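By way of example, we now present a protein record of this kind:
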Amino acid sequence: MAFDYIHDVLKARRQQHLLRRRVLVEEVSARSIRVQGNDYLNFASNDYLALGDLPLSELAARSGSHSSPLVTGYQRCHQALEQRFCDLLGYQSAMLFPSGFSANISVLKALFAESNDALIVQDKLNHASLIDGGLQANAAMQRFNHNNLSHLQARLSKSKASNKLVVSEGVFSMDGDCAPVDDLHALCRAHDAWFMLDDAHGFGVLGEGLGSAVKGNTRPDILVITFGKALASHGAVVLASTPVIELLLQGNRDYIYSTSISPMQCAITEQRLTQLLNAKALRQQLQSNIAYFRERCAQSSLALMESQTPIQPLIVGDSESALQMQTDLREQGIWLSAIRPPTVAHNTARLRITLTAAHQQQDIDTLVKALESCR
């Protein structure tokens, strides 16, 4: 019968311990989570500064978007939020998107829509949205070994393409390490290439809150900031020169044919951005928590990856073992995620531990003790 293959696919994924399931969350904060009536310490949140736990003032903005941005959906609140990001980060123009995934995939498709001589070179560990965008773009795509400048230089040196774009994340979402943004930018300039940076996990945390590029004293040609991490909101913004944004307005199908983000969401993001810029104490607390966690893990001989960001992965290896550890930890009141292929490479299934400014030392001690018991 038609579509019988669906049952086979699901059965195979179940047998390989790769079947994904949604979890119905009853309550959640940066520090705790309630699922099926049980309370856990939450070490799976991307709300790194715990801004989502802070109150918002009364939102007077109307909630309706009404239409796509090129019809009647582009309102003063959208323009004001775009301009605020431009002023903060030194860009000429910006575009708001409903999600970081939409921003990444659509920008790469639209940028090369009318180019016949282009190359995209991406870090091997880039987010799925960037890889998908590169695969769908009207350009050749190559990948360079993670944070390997020599390999990237070899890729660029061999290319005869007129239009070359290097794409990287600022903080890598599964490994938690940082890209060498200054060196990447310099290499791009040396090879007449552009540099695009997705700073979803760096913005708010690094560079006194302004992200990886500011921390590295670099201004990428295209910068994407996602609102759903440290900013504790929803949506994304793409920052670039005015000609680039104008080009995207002509051919970015995801932007042209999607309803704009609501004025209510703009108002929420505006308030969260103000909170983020004033969150120096929270950033200091977050860094203190990261240092304390790494120190405690070292004392317990728990081998973490080399990350100084809130993302602290613990490699397990096979998917079955990672799932078992996840289950064992939940029985001890710890909530975190087992990350398995294809999100990460084969035999690198891991526990993805994320720290926030809301965690207390006793929470971290509880986590480390639980991790020790699972070995």
About this structure: The mean pLDDT is 95. The first helix runs from residue 5 to 15.
